[in-house]
Each structure stands twice: as structure tokens, then as C-alpha cells.
Design goal:
The complex is a heterotetramer, with one copy of chain A, one copy of chain B and two copies of chain C. By secondary structure, chain B is an alpha+beta fold. Chain B is built from 26 helices and 28 strands. The chains are: A alpha/beta, B alpha+beta, C alpha+beta. The structure holds adenosine-5'-diphosphate and magnesium ion.
Chain lengths: ~220, ~725, ~80, ~80
């Protein structure tokens, strides 16, 4: 399978995701943001980091870059798009995903391993996970506090578009297990066609037992199959 | 403009120094030249008070590729890999504006590392604050922590270890020391020495603004009531631009276009151009009209002394200009040829086709003043503290008291604000004896730790100096690494004060002895004097940053207990030294007496033995014993798991508090699988290592036979509340 | 010509920053405080003498980049 | 009573945010743009009828929390 990782000035998880993709046997290429055509790919990844320093709103400026037009075209024609962390923020800025990511409720950057629950495993991104499976995944962000309007929230629920929710070790989804204040503990969502996934946790950090655990592996192997 | 006494004083220069400037120039300097002298001759850049002492440090070893004298030290870690690292202080700026001060401190030290061709792979920090009750402490702590995180997180380099301490001595003068560690290919190290005449001198990075003018002089003076006036010199960090600069520099370094490269740190364009040219015994000529400026109408004086961040100076090979320019354009960075190297041995500054300043380089560098400042030996009290009259306290209560104190509380409130995982090579994060960072795409790793002990150094500078080196060494050993080399940041008070200078000389003597004995050379460092306000100086606070090598990632260790029923072995002799201990400090508010002695022979033997046992996979977990003594070390191994320990009270125990809280040096706790005990004991005996078997791990309870038994959760809770309630 | 642009979150959007600021101020003893909302402020200078035209340009900048219209409202003022 | 507070970086202080915004707007083809500086904006409502007193209170909030006086300037306006 062919994948492309879009690199913006200030992206800093681009190398990490590339490494994970290669480990999972994707044929990966890095695509610089100034490029105007996108190599043909089955998967486009917008990686984490601080594109343009996140100085205006996280993801805002990257959302206006040349390459993003191509990403939008590809997404509309059904290509899989995965946005992780800053990538998720960028996807909401482009409108490919609805809602937005506000400052964490404690106004601090948060880096730790948290638990998330698989809410929908009937998608091309999550099929290798069990429904309600609890994963331990690293988060690292300032703005991960997902917010959307009530119409869209209902749509997310009714159409089963929530991918992951923050929970505790036992799977309880509540305020205590919500690290950043996200609405309904939402950690990741799909678009209505379910070919776009945006998520705050970093699956690429969880593919190597020497470094962490391997809870992220099945995300990539789901995509492969 | 006439150079008056007030102007000279404002530039931090002494009368005699001004006289030498006139002699060296054979005329009066103009204001621009005076500014340049003041920048180069201040303590921060010239090391005039410390140089004679620093010379004594051991800096050689077969692992050393580059010792002190470059932007950072470089060591060999086998194959074609090298590690580049250095620590630096940003104390004064962080006190004035904690967020930006700390952030730019991180930015500055990162540039020192990537200028040498290394990709930064880890950040560490040592931060010291005043008493938690001091009205400023809380906001300083918040600002510094978010500044460190703000910069490191944005640029995408994991912050993996550090230390945070509170002590009244820092009430008016906090310490913020940042260390950066990078990885380079051995044959691709870049240096700052210029070579060749008429080569292009290129300015890259951010534009120059009026920020930070005279920052280096600020770092070389005491604070007083008027320090507030110095506020306009605050610099704002721009980690996004630094990320671009990092990537652009590394891209250009793939090829061999660069003759020499130097970041613009303290004293900006002045020190970078002077250093490159003087190291190469060349001259340098700059056309200041070409310097990219952020503000209108900037003067040569402002351009030369600005400390705007995220800038570099590069000397390029002939004909490489366009190639290099393209790379910087790709990263949206300024790239301007602002001058040439010359054979005049002078710094020549042109502006609007006029020579505005010309100074022989040796006057700025080799002929800068060096002082052999007076220093006096510390008077050491020989009297033992009388501890017999102390009110009795239960071991359990003393333990909880220490674990819940600000200095010992779990630091995750801080470390959760740092991205520790980005780059995906962090095999062990902060909270352990040493962080472990894998060498990308390889199975080997380095271990990293920073350490200091201001109370020890204050009461007995020589022992304190030795102790911090040894503690650092023990931390590196405990995770299974072979200690290779250190960097050091020497935070002291006013060097013009004999006692302070004595603390400096003696701490350095201690560092030297320990480094020599352990073959643990110093490859880089930084000196920060004048830490104090109105004649109140901080305690001597040298900080050691050490790097160790792990050949095989399979053989690393954490300090957490792994399973029940394993045997707990205490390595090293316990004498029960309580003077200067946490036990006395936290329970009785006594900070007195001498620190525990350092026996370098034991230190070395014990450490090498522990490392050998770890390498043979005979150890399940290991932890060095430092502040707080044995019981604290054991609790740290237990907390966060449901595994505790049952300590069998041996008859030998004279005094429980001495045994459990004494801070005798050179000791480790090892968790050994029962089945390996015989082979471990064999090794220990063959090496004549003193050891005691003190008990076994067990589920759920932390217990000393017939003395205390508490739920391991109680320890955890005690240890995890302070920051969250502060 | 110089303009200021103020950007604030829409009424129904949660404002975590404003909330924390408000709590902190309350804790600092400022009890009369009723509400705080935090937003952004821009000072924009453009090379255009005609005020109408200039305003249209600034408005374009807001719509294109400065403001996330889904969650934010904005106001332009001539300085 | 309602006030607005605008906070901007002092004149000579680097404004990395404004710089990036300005570059982006230029790249988006807004060539007349001369400069952008980015700051903060607060909308504060307090329970105090006397305008003088209210202003003093808001000023206190600025000094105590909202503004970093070392690098920022601020302005208070009644809304
Ligand atoms: N305490 C020290 N021990 C060893 N070397 C030191 C020490 N302090 C400074 N040095 C060395 O002196 C040189 C100049 O240091 P410094 O002026 O801090 O560098 P920079 O210009 O990069 O800020 C560096 O090579 C540094 O490693
Ligand atoms: Mg340097």
C-alpha cells in the first residue's frame, strides 16, 4: 500500500509516522507542503507537530497551504486520510472534519499515556480492533479539547462517527478519564463517509515494545487490509 | 560621543579594564567599539574569573572527540556515532520573565548542539526555585516549566530528564539550566574555526531586533533594586523559526559547503564573528547595512549587541553560496552574505561605506582579561552534630514527611507538560535514575541525568563537588549504562567575594578529583557567576549533566520493583550519616553539619560491579541511594506498583533512623531474582563488595519487621499530592 | 491605514481560557467579576488610502485566515 | 459594567505570531499588507456600577494576571 506523509514547516512527528508506516510495510513518501501535486496514494497522513508554530490557531495556517487543496481533492474521491494530533487540528481547519479543538481545559500542554476505547470498529481504520477494546496511547498536545455544535454531535452519535473516546483503565468514560475536556470524551472522529479519521492520540508512538507498547499497530494493519 | 565614566560603568567595565582597552587599541574606543569590548570582556563571554580554575578539569579520554572550547562537547559512542552535548544557564532572564527566559534558554542550548552538525535528540533541565512559601515561587515555577515545555514541545525534541529543587537560597535568584544532547556522525562534526581568506560570511535565521541588547552583561552582574529597568532586554523565543533553522542547517550540512559555523548566542553577532575569526587566526569584515533587521533605523551598535534569537553565522566554501541560499529559501529563512574573512586579524565593521569600528581580534579574545581572584578556603566545622536530644519520631511518619515534601514529591505535574515521547526513541522517561534514549534505528542507547546538591556544596565544597559527580555516575550506572563524560554548569555568587570564589575553587577541585578518578571527563560546560541580590549570594550550585552508553537496549533497567518474592540487596556500607540529610531537614528543619564523605575507591568498585551484574542480566531492578537514604530509595522502587517490601530487621541495627535515612554515598539497592542470588553473591564476594541482604519484595505492603507496615498506596498518595495542591 | 481586529469565540462555544482566567481572578479575591471571555487581537497596517477598500481587504483577511468562522466572531475597527 | 482589554507586545519585542500571520497573508496574495501584530483580547464584565471604581478593578486584573507587563502593553475600554 502506498502512503504519503505531508510535511509542513513545524511538523515534528513526520519522521515518527513515516517510520511506523515503513515498519508496517507501507510504501511511504514524504510530501513537502509547497508541492502542488500529490503522488498517488492509498493513505494520506497529516502528522503531528506545530505547523507554523500553531501561532494563530493550531492547524489554521497549514489548512491554507497549497498541498491541502490536493488533500481535499483526494479525500473527496475516497482516498483514506489520517490526521494525528496537529493533523486532526488541520483537518478541522480545512473543513474535512467538523468541529474544532480548543485549549485543554487545564490550559497546559499534556503529555502522558492515556486510555481510549474503540467506539466503532467497523471502519477501514479500526477493523482490527475489537469493539470497546481499551488501548493505552500517548497524547501530547495543547489543544485537544474537542468541541462541536449539538447538531453535529448528534450526527456523530447517530451515524457512529466517533472512533475513540478517552476512558480509564477499566473503560469508564467520565470526567476523571477525560484528560483535556473534550466533549463527550471524544478522542477521534470520522467524516460521514468514514474515509477520514482525525485523532488526538499518537498511534505511531505505540508500535515498538522497546519504547512503549504496540497498541497502535492494529490501526495501521486495519488500513492495510 | 565622548566616553564618560558613566558610560564605561554602564557597560559593566572597570576603570582598569577601560585603561587596558585604550592600550590595546592605542587610542580611545568609540561607543560601538566600547560596546563590543563590554560584550566580549564580560564574565559570561570571557570567563575571566573562572578560566584559571576550569583549566584544571580533566577533559581527555579515548571517548572524547571534542572537549571544552567549542559550542558543545563531542564524545564517541562506537560505530560511526557521536554524541554532542552541553548545558547552559539562563538564570537572570528567567527570573525577569520566566516563560521567555526559560524558553530562550532551551533555544540557545539547542543551537549550540545543532551548530556542530548534530540532530538534537533530548533535552534536560535543572531548575532551582526559592522557598515554596516565597510569594514569587509559584508563578516562577509555572512560567519556567511552561517556557521549557513551550519551546521543546514546539520544536519537537523530547524533554526527558531534569531536577527541580526548592531552597530559600534561590528566593531572589532562581536557576534555570538547560542541557541539550544531539547525535551526529563522527566524521560529520562542524566546528567554529574559520579557515581561508575572502570567504563569504553568511547570516542566516531570524532578523535582528533590538531585543536583548546587553544580555550578556546582565548575566554578568548582580541584581539590585534597579534590575527592573533592565526589562527591555527580554528576548522572545520563536521555536518555530528555530525548527526551520535546525532543519535548514542539517540539510546544508549533508554536503561540505560549510567551513565554519557558529550560533549567535550571548553577545550575538559580536561574539560569533569574533570567535570564528580569532579561532582561525584570521580577520573578519562585516557590512552592517546588510544585516537583516526587524526594526527601522537600527544602529551598528544595536546590530552588533542584539541578542535576537534563532540566528547563525556561517562561513561558506567558495561557490556554494547559491546552493546554500536555496536551502534557506526553502525553509523561508533569511540568508544574507554580510561579510568576508580577511587576513588582517581585525574585526572591521562597515556601515554606509564607512568604517565604524576596527578592533584587533586578539584584544577581544586572547588578550581579554583573566583574573586570578582571591579566594579563601571554606572553614569546615569538625564538631559532630548532637542528635541525641532530638524529639523521637516514628520511622513511618518521617518517611511520609519526606515523601510528601516539595523537594521529594513526584514531579509528573512538571514532566507531563513536556513532550517526552516525540522522536519515538525515549525508552525511559523522567522519573527514573536516568533517561534512556535510543540511537535512532539502532539497538544501542544513551543514558542521561543531571544532578546537583547545593546544601552539600555549601557546607563542604570539595566533598560536594565530588558528590555531584558521583551521584551522576551512580544514576547512569543504575539504568545499565557505562558513564562516558559530563558537562557542567557552575552556578555561583559574586566571584569578587573571596568566600564565593573559594566555594568555586573548592567545588571545582572536588569535581576534578572525582572526574579524574572515575575517568569521567568534562567535555563542555558553562559558568554563571553573580547569582545573588544585594550581596546575598546563592549557595554554590554546580550542576552535572552526564551521558552513559548502553550497548544493548535489551539490557536496560528501571528502578521499579518487578515481582514479588525477589531478594533485595543493599550494595555499599551504611554508616548512618545524618548531617545535611533530608531526614533532619524535613523533620527537624536542621540543615547543618558536613555532607557524607565520598570514598572514590568504593564508589568506583561498587558502580562497576553493579554495572557488571546488570550486563549479565542478574538484576531485575536497580536504584542508587541518594537524598533521603535507603528507605526513600526503597519507597521509590515500590511506588506506582502494588509491590512493596518486607525488610527483616537485623540485629546489627543500632539506630533505625541512621540506618534508614543516613545518606552515606556509593550505595545501590538491587532487586535480584531468588534463583540468581547465588551467582550474584559470588560476584559480589569475588569483587570484595560490601553488601547486605535486607529483605524481600511482597505484594501490597511496605513493611519493616516489627516497626511499620503500610499499604503501598499510602506511599504513592503521599508522594503525589504536593504539586497538585500547590 | 491601520485597523484593529478583535476575534472572540461565539457565545455558545466553550471558552476554556476565559474560564480559567475567571477562576484565577476569583481566587485572587476579585469577587465582583461576573465573566471573562478571552479572544485575539490583531493590529493590521495596510497600504491603501481608501478606507472602504481597505476595510474590504481587512475583512478578506479575516475571512480567509484570521477567523475561524465556525466558532469565532470578529469586529474590525479603524485605528 | 463591561470592559474590553486589548493586550499587545511592546514595540521592540519580537512577535513570532504576527510574523507568521503576516507571511501567510502575503503568500495568500495580500500584497498591500504592511504589518500585523497579534495580541490578546478580553471581555470583562464586573458587578460595579461606579465607572471609576470599575476601571480601577479591571486595571488591577490586568496588572495581576492578564498582562505580562515586562513584554506587553495594554488598553482598557468601556464597552
Ligand atoms: N564549567 C565548564 N567546564 C568546562 N568547559 C566549560 C565550562 N564552562 C564553559 N566551558 C566551555 O567554554 C566554552 C565557551 O562557553 P560559552 O561561552 O558558554 O559557549 P557559548 O558561546 O556557546 O555560549 C565552551 O566550549 C564551553 O564548553
Ligand atoms: Mg555557542
Amino acid at each position: 500500500m502506498k502512503s504519503s506523509v505531508i510535511v509542513f514547516p513545524g511538523s515534528n512527528c513526520d519522521r515518527d509516522i513515516a517510520k511506523a508506516l515503513e515498519k508496517m510495510q507501507f510504501k511511504n513518501q514524504m510530501v513537502w507542503h509547497k508541492e502542488t501535486d500529490l503522488p498517488k496514494s492509498d493513505l494520506i497522513v497529516i502528522p503531528g507537530g506545530f505547523s507554523y508554530g500553531d501561532y494563530l490557531r493550531s492547524g489554521a495556517i497549514a489548512g491554507k497551504s497549497l498541498i491541502i487543496e490536493e488533500v481535499i481533492k483526494a479525500a473527496n474521491s475516497g482516498c483514506l486520510v489520517l490526521g494525528i494530533c496537529n493533523g486532526f487540528q488541520i483537518l478541522t481547519e480545512t473543513g474535512l472534519l467538523k468541529g474544532t479543538l480548543l485549549r485543554n481545559k487545564n490550559l497546559k500542554f499534556i503529555n502522558k499515556d492515556i486510555n481510549i476505547k474503540v467506539i466503532n470498529n467497523q471502519t477501514r481504520f479500526t477493523s482490527k480492533y475489537k469493539l470497546n477494546q481499551i488501548l493505552k496511547i500517548n497524547i501530547a498536545h495543547n489543544e485537544g479539547n474537542y468541541f462541536t455544535n449539538s447538531t453535529h454531535l448528534n450526527e456523530l452519535k447517530n451515524e457512529n462517527l466517533i472512533a475513540f473516546k478517552y476512558c480509564d483503565e477499566k473503560g469508564n468514560i467520565n470526567n476523571q478519564s477525560n484528560p483535556n475536556g473534550a466533549m463527550d470524551n471524544i478522542a477521534g472522529i470520522f467524516n460521514s463517509k468514514k474515509n477520514i479519521l482525525g485523532m488526538m492520540p499518537h498511534p505511531e508512538r505505540m508500535v515498538d515494545k522497546f519504547i512503549s507498547n504496540t497498541d497502535g499497530v492494529n490501526l495501521f494493519s486495519s488500513i492495510l487490509h | 560621543m565622548e566616553i564618560t565614566n558613566t558610560i564605561i560603568e554602564k557597560h559593566g567595565l572597570k576603570k582598569e579594564e577601560y585603561e587596558s582597552i585604550k592600550k590595546l587599541l592605542k587610542r580611545n574606543p568609540n561607543l560601538l567599539e566600547l560596546g563590543i569590548f563590554s560584550a566580549m570582556w564580560n564574565e559570561h563571554c570571557s570567563y575571566k574569573s573562572s578560566r584559571l580554575h576550569l583549566k584544571k578539569l580533566p577533559t581527555k579520554g579515548k571517548q572524547v572527540i571534542q572537549g571544552p572550547g567549542e559550542n558543545a562537547g563531542v564524545i564517541d559512542i562506537g560505530d560511526d556515532d557521536a554524541i554532542v552535548f552541553k548545558i547552559e544557564s539562563h538564570n537572570h532572564p528567567s527570573y525577569i520573565e520566566p516563560y521567555q527566559g526559560a524558553a530562550t534558554g532551551v533555544g540557545g542550548i539547542l543551537r549550540d548542539v545543532f551548530t556542530m552538525g548534530a540532530r538534537p535528540i533530548a533535552l534536560l533541565n535543572s531548575i532551582h526555585f526559592g522557598s515554596p512559601n516565597h510569594p514569587k515561587t509559584k508563578s516562577l515555577l509555572n512560567g519556567v516549566v511552561s517556557g521549557i515545555g513551550g519551546y521543546g514541545n514546539c520544536i519537537g525534541i523530547p524533554t526527558v530528564a531534569g531536577e527541580t529543587k526548592f531552597n530559600e537560597t534561590y528566593n531572589e535568584n532562581i536557576l534555570v539550566n538547560a542541557m541539550a544532547v544531539g547525535h551526529a556522525k563522527k566524521n560529520k562534526i562542524f566546528y567554529s574555526k574559520a579557515k581561508g581568506v575572502n570567504k563569504s560570511v553568511v547570516y542566516v535565521g531570524s532578523k535582528t531586533g533590538r531585543d536583548g541588547i546587553h544580555g550578556a552583561s546582565m548575566a554578568s552582574a548582580e541584581f539590585d533594586e534597579n534590575s527592573e529597568d533592565k526589562k527591555p532586554t527580554v528576548q522572545v523565543g520563536d521555536p518555530f523559526t528555530e525548527k526551520l533553522l535546525l532543519e535548514a542547517c542539517l540539510e546544508l550540512m549533508k554536503d561540505d559547503s560549510i567551513i565554519a559555523i557558529q550560533d549567535m548566542g550571548a553577545a550575538g553577532l559580536t561574539s560569533s564573528s569574533v570567535e570564528m575569526a580569532s579561532k582561525g587566526s584570521l580577520g573578519i569584515e562585516l557590512e552592517l547595512d546588510k544585516v537583516p533587521c526587524r526594526e527601522e533605523n537600527m544602529t551598528p551598535y544595536e546590530m552588533m549587541l542584539s541578542e535576537s534569537q534563532e540566528r547563525m553565522l556561517i562561513i561558506l566554501e567558495d561557490g556554494k553560496e547559491d546552493y546554500a541560499r536555496q536551502i534557506f529559501a526553502k525553509w523561508d529563512l533569511d540568508f544574507v552574505i554580510i561579510g568576508r574573512t580577511t587576513n588582517t586579524n581585525k574585526l572591521t565593521l562597515k556601515f554606509k561605506n564607512k568604517i565604524e569600528g576596527e578592533i584587533p581580534l586578539e584584544a577581544l579574545a586572547s588578550k581579554a582579561p583573566i583574573y586570578n581572584r582571591k579566594w579563601s578556603k571554606k572553614k569546615i566545622s569538625r564538631k559532630k552534630l548532637d542528635l541525641k536530644k532530638l524529639k523521637k519520631i516514628k520511622i513511618e511518619d518521617a518517611l511520609i514527611k519526606i515523601l510528601s515534601s516539595p523537594n521529594h514529591s513526584n514531579k509528573s505535574w512538571i514532566t507531563n507538560q513536556y513532550d517526552q515521547m516525540v522522536m519515538c526513541d525515549t525508552a525511559q522517561k523522567s522519573g527514573s535514575d536516568a533517561a534512556i534514549i535510543r540511537i535512532h534505528d539502532k539497538n544501542k542507547a544513551i543514558a542521561l541525568s543531571v544532578d546537583s546538591s547545593a546544601n552539600y556544596c555549601k557546607s563542604h565544597p570539595i566533598t560536594g563537588g565530588k558528590q555531584i559527580v558521583c551521584e551522576n555516575w551512580r544514576n547512569l550506572i543504575s539504568v545499565g549504562s557505562k558513564p562516558l563524560a559530563i558537562t557542567n554548569c557552575l552556578n555561583f555568587g559574586n566571584p569578587e567575594n573571596e568566600e564565593i570564589m573559594g566555594e568555586f575553587a573548592e567545588c571545582l577541585e572536588g569535581i576534578k578529583e572525582a572526574c579524574e578518578f572515575l575517568k569521567f571527563p568534562v567535555v563542555s560546560g558553562n559558568v554563571s557567576f553573580y547569582n545573588g541580590t544585594n550581596k546575598k549570594n546563592i549557595y554554590p550550585t554546580p550542576v552535572i549533566g552526564g551521558v552513559g552508553l548502553i550497548q544493548n537496549l535489551n539490557k536496560t533497567l528501571s528502578h521499579k520493583f518487578k515481582k514479588e518474592k525477589s531478594i533485595i540487596v543493599l550494595i555499599g556500607k551504611t554508616f548512618g550519616h545524618l548531617e545535611q540529610s533530608c531526614f533532619l531537614k524535613e523533620n527537624y528543619s536542621i540543615i547543618d553539619g558536613n555532607p557524607p564523605e565520598i570514598n572514590l575507591i568504593n564508589e568506583k568498585n561498587n558502580g562497576e560491579m553493579v554495572l557488571k551484574l546488570i550486563e549479565r542480566k542478574l538484576v531485575l531492578s536497580a536504584h542508587d541511594i541518594s537524598n533521603g537514604g535507603l528507605l526513600i530509595a526503597l519507597s521509590e522502587m515500590s511506588m506506582g506498583s502494588n509491590l512493596g517490601i518486607k525488610i527483616e530487621k537485623s540485629k546489627k541495627l543500632r539506630d533505625l533512623k541512621e540506618y534508614f535515612f543516613g545518606e552515606d554515598q556509593g550505595r545501590y539497592v538491587l532487586e535480584i531474582d531468588e534463583k540468581n542470588l547465588t551467582s550474584v553473591e559470588k560476584f559480589l564476594k569475588s569483587g570484595s563488595i560490601y553488601y547486605e541482604i535486607i529483605g524481600k519484595t511482597q505484594e501490597n505492603f511496605f513493611e519493616i519487621e516489627n516497626e511499620m507496615k503500610i499499604d503501598t498506596n499510602v506511599l504513592y498518595k503521599a508522594n503525589n499530592q504536593w504539586y497538585n495542591n500547590y | 491605514m491601520k485597523f484593529s481586529v478583535t476575534v472572540v469565540l461565539k457565545k455558545d462555544v466553550l471558552d476554556p481560557q476565559g474560564k480559567v482566567v475567571q477562576n484565577t481572578l476569583n481566587n485572587l479575591g476579585m469577587s465582583d467579576l461576573k465573566s471573562v471571555r478571552q479572544g485575539k487581537f490583531f493590529e493590521i497596517e495596510i497600504d491603501e488610502q481608501d478606507q472602504k477598500k481597505a476595510e474590504i481587504k481587512v475583512d478578506g483577511m479575516c475571512k480567509k485566515l484570521l477567523v475561524n468562522l465556525i466558532i469565532e466572531d470578529y469586529k474590525i475597527n479603524k485605528l
